[in-house]
Amino acid sequence: MSARRHPRSTRAIFAWPMFIAVLSLIGLVAGLTGDGARDVLAWLLLGSAPVTIAFAYWRAGRPARPINSPARTKAPSHDRA
Length: 81
Fold this sequence. Notes:
By secondary structure, the protein is mostly helical. The model has no long low-confidence stretch (mean pLDDT 82). It has a domain at 15-63. The protein is flat. The chain is built from three helices and no strands. Helix 1 packs antiparallel against helix 2.
């Protein structure tokens, strides 16, 4: 028997994407307006998006595959023997 899925609010669905967008925006502004420590801050904040995506793939148990990988582009076989 499968578990019931409870509907989530719009706020719950978009909370993490909005958080990542705000971090990225702050990182872009920091990188454009200063040097030294602001550059380090920009790298950290802009790097949070790819790290979060990699963590989500790892947690979901799905390895990241290129779109044109053989597993994705293999056409179904319709041969009749």
